[in-house]
Amino acid sequence: ELSPNARPHWAAKARATKAYRELAWAVTKDALGRSKPMWNEATARATFYFAKAGRRDRGNMQAMLKPAFDGMVDAGLMVDDENLVELPPVKMVDAKRPRVEIEVWEGVTSG
Question: What integer pLDDT is reported at residue 36 of this predicted model?
Answer without folding.
Answer: 79
